From TrEMBL:
It comes from Rhizomicrobium palustre. Residues 17-77 form the HTH tetR-type domain. SUPFAM superfamilies: Homeodomain-like, Tetracyclin repressor-like, C-terminal domain. Gene3D superfamilies: Tetracycline Repressor, domain 2 (1.10.357.10). This is AcrR family transcriptional regulator. One of its GO terms (molecular function) is transcription cis-regulatory region binding. Residues 40-59 bind DNA. Keywords: DNA-binding, Transcription, Transcription regulation.
């Protein structure tokens, strides 16, 4: 009889192959499926299936984890703006495309958008990487529109609209139809707002 020593020997401790990314995946899932309030290092460890001490190998504290998530969010938003900026056409078409991309991101990742721009990170100046990531979004919008002042105006307009919607201050149809309606509504509003430039 052949004995399988793997099943009879003592269990080996579990070692994660890519702990950092597993922790970030768990944090993203908690953020979007539950809430920012539910996102603790202990909850992330539990979700990733690792010890409660494991997250501290990569994130010295809760704030460091939030900074990493927000920085990733800015990079993702920037990539979507770059893609939208490739839209051929006149300036109003690019403005509408950039605004729709921004709203698509907010509609798909509302909890992340709140973290990126909200008060949960009061010490932003202590994290140059986060500041650079945020600045790069504004820079990319300015590049897309070939005008940094216009880029800032478009960013302010679409971001203000996004936050008003997320906080249920205004209804652009999302209360009845869901957040998926936001990109098309943003396009319409931005075309109206910036039509005078044509």
């Amino acid at each position: 009889m052949i004995m399988d020593v793997r099943s009879t020997g003592p269990k080996r401790p579990y070692h994660h192959g890519d702990l950092r990314n597993a922790l970030l995946d768990a944090a993203r899932a908690i953020l979007e499926e539950e809430s920012l309030g539910a996102l603790s290092l202990r909850a992330v460890a539990r979700r990733a299936g690792v010890s409660h001490a494991a997250p501290y190998r990569h994130f010295p504290n809760h704030e460091a984890l939030l900074v990493e998530l927000a920085s990733e969010g800015f990079a993702e938003l920037k990539a979507e703006i770059v893609e939208a900026a490739a839209t051929p056409g006149a300036e109003p078409d690019r403005i509408a495309a950039v605004g729709a991309a921004y709203m698509r991101f907010v509609a798909r990742r509302p909890a992340l958008a709140r973290l990126m721009f909200g008060p949960q990170l009061p010490n932003r100046e202590s994290f140059p990487k986060l500041a650079e990531a945020a600045d790069s979004v504004g820079d990319e919008i300015g590049k897309a529109l070939h005008d940094s002042a216009l880029g800032l105006a478009v960013w302010a307009a679409v971001h203000g609209l996004a936050m008003l919607v997320l906080e249920n201050v205004i209804d652009l149809g999302q209360r009845r139809s869901g957040l998926d309606v936001l990109p098309s509504r943003a396009e319409i509003l931005l075309r109206s707002l910036f039509a005078v430039r044509e």
